[in-house]
Amino acid sequence: MKEITLGIFAALFFAVTFILNRSMELSGGSWLWSSSLRFFFMLPFLIAIVSYRTGFENLRREMRENTSKWLLWSFVGFVLFYAPLTFAAAYGPGWLVSGTWQFTIVAGVILAPLFVTVVDNKIIRQKIPLTSLFISCIILVGIMLIQIPQGKEVTFNHLLLGMIPVVIAAFSYPLGNRKMMELCGSRIDTFERVLGMTIASLPAWFILAVIAICTVGLPSMNQVIQSLIVAVSSGVIATTLFFIATDRVRNHQGKLAAVEATQSMEVVFVIIGEMIILGVPLPDPIALFGLAVIIVGMLLHSYHTAIIGKKSDLSEKAKLLQ
User: Which residues cross the membrane (predicted)?
Assistant: First the structure.
């Protein structure tokens, strides 16, 4: 339950990304700057946090020993996640981008067979948790209900450009996150891992920034300020909260799926935020019903996770009694 609560708070701060990315696009900002500036601004905050908490020696050792894997999975988990999201914001409204992004809750479950655990020196491939997959699909039904009324306002081309990049991001984020958890284990903490992934992804962000300078020039002050807000809210706070939650349950696919499903709450927060900040009208009854379905799905995930936790506790007690 604690991990799900952390995930919901992460979703709240993640929602800022979709709202402000859309706001920046509407005001003429380029997605190239929206994506790269976030990670440039994240870096000093993360350096300060890691310096104060643990220092850099452990992280330096981890990155030196597995440099190629850090570069690969940081690119997948950060670059292939965030660059497509900001690109999609140029073509689709926040509700479309944030709604499509929720495919990540199913993507995370489907990716389970790509990972293995070692038990008694035996390599065991993870299985897809079917109950968690079913509950995640219920949440997706709610998300589709939200999309239906709004879809009439978007052209087919904008629908594709606003959705396909987000589907790529939806698979890349949990894949990169899980692969990095598998690589690092418990040798470094969440803050160190986020900092390491940020550093390892910098070459890609520098390339995008150079392209931005050559094509659209320097960003406006408004875009710089909004990118700074996104960096702190989504890049530092939300990413850290979410990674802490997934770290705690990384060895249990069902619980991990439940934590990843908390990202469905982003749709709720984005709709509320766009109503307040961008003047988007109140959703119609079908969309409101969709929101209710999402909340029911989250409650089912919470209940299922609680049942799993109790069974695990009883199993541990039985082992101790033996």
Answer: 31-50, 70-89, 95-116, 128-148, 154-173, 194-218, 224-245, 257-280, 286-309
Query: Would you mind telling me the total number of residues written for the chain in this entry?
Result: 322
Q: Write out the two tokens for 167.
A: 């589907």
CB 53 within 8 A of CB 129: no
How many Cα atoms within 13 Å fall on the side-chain side of residue 268? 20
> What does DSSP say about strands 116-119 and 122-125: parallel, antiparallel, or unpaired?
antiparallel
Residue 118, phi then psi, degrees to nearest 5: -110, 115
Q: Which residues of the chain have pLDDT under 70?
A: 1, 92-96, 115-124, 147, 149-156, 158-159, 253-254, 257, 283, 298, 302, 305-306, 308-322
Helix orientation angle between 156-184 and 67-74, rounded to the nearest 10 degrees: 150
CA dist., res. 269 & res. 238, Å (int): 13
Tell me the backbone φ, ψ of residue 148, rounded to 5 degrees.
Answer: -55, -55
Buried b (16+ CB within 10 A) or exposed e, 213-224: eeeeeebeeebe
- Note the pLDDT of residue 136: 77
Under 8 Å CB-to-CB from 205, ≥6 apart: which residues?
35, 36, 39, 40, 79
Q: Which residues contact 38 (CB under 8 A, 6 or more apart)?
A: 82, 227, 230, 231, 234, 235
Task: Report how far residue 241's alpha carbon sits from residue 177's, in angstroms, rounded to the nearest whole number.
Answer: 13
What pTM value is reported for the model?
0.78
How far, CA to CA in Å, does 25 sit from each of 157, 204, 212, 222, 275? 17, 21, 14, 11, 17
CA–CA separation, 151 vs 302, rounded Å?
30
pLDDT value for 271? 77
pLDDT at 249: 78
pLDDT of the residue at 76: 95
Q: Give the pLDDT confidence score for residue 214 in this predicted structure.
A: 95
pLDDT at site 275: 78
Give me 306's structure tokens: 């609680």
Amino acid residing at 224: V
